[in-house]
Design a protein that fits this description.
The protein is mainly alpha-helical. It is 75% helix and 4% strand. The chain has a two-stranded antiparallel ribbon with strand order 1-2. A hairpin with a 5-residue loop joins strand 1 and strand 2 (131-133). Helix 1 (3-32) runs parallel beside helix 4 (73-118).
C-alpha cells in the first residue's frame, strides 16, 4: 500500500460515516412515522455500514505509512472532519434511542388502556407488575 491508498481509505471511511448519518436520520423518520418494516431495513443497512467502517478502521490502523501520515496536515484535517461526522452520528443515535424508548412507552400505555377497557372488572397484575386481564369465564355452570 502507498500513502495514496491511505488517503483513499480515509476518504472511504468519511463516505461511510456520511452514509451512517443519513441512515440514522432515516431511522428517526421510521421511528416517528411508526414504520417497522422500514426501521428493520434501515437497521440492517446500518449494521452493514458499521461493519464496513470497522474493516476500514482495521485497514487504516495496520497501514504501514500511518505513523508518517499522522504528522501531515491533510491527515489531521481528514480525521477532524470524520470526528465531526462521528459526533453527529453519536448525537443522532442518542436522539433515536430516546425516541424509540418514548415510542415503546406510549405503546405500553396504549396497551394498558386497552386492557383496562377490555376487562375493567378482571384487570389484575402479573408477577412482574404488568397489567393482565383475568378471564373468569361466562359465569354459567354446566
Amino acid at each position: 500500500m502507498t500513502a495514496t491508498d491511505l488517503n483513499t481509505l480515509l476518504q472511504q471511511q468519511k463516505e461511510h460515516l456520511d452514509v451512517l448519518l443519513s441512515l440514522l436520520r432515516q431511522e428517526i423518520s421510521a421511528i416517528s412515522n411508526r414504520q417497522p418494516d422500514e426501521l428493520e431495513a434501515v437497521g440492517s443497512t446500518k449494521v452493514a455500514c458499521l461493519e464496513a467502517l470497522q474493516q476500514l478502521d482495521q485497514q487504516i490502523a495496520t497501514h504501514p505509512q500511518l505513523s508518517e501520515a499522522r504528522q501531515t496536515n491533510t491527515f489531521k484535517e481528514a480525521v477532524s472532519a470524520m470526528d465531526q461526522v462521528l459526533a453527529e452520528c453519536k448525537q443522532q443515535n442518542e436522539v433515536n434511542r430516546l425516541a424509540l424508548e418514548q415510542s415503546q412507552l406510549n405503546l405500553q400505555h396504549f396497551k394498558n388502556e386497552l386492557l383496562q377497557l377490555h376487562g375493567k372488572s378482571g384487570l389484575t397484575y402479573d408477577r412482574k407488575g404488568k397489567p393482565a386481564v383475568e378471564h373468569k369465564g361466562t359465569g354459567f355452570k354446566a
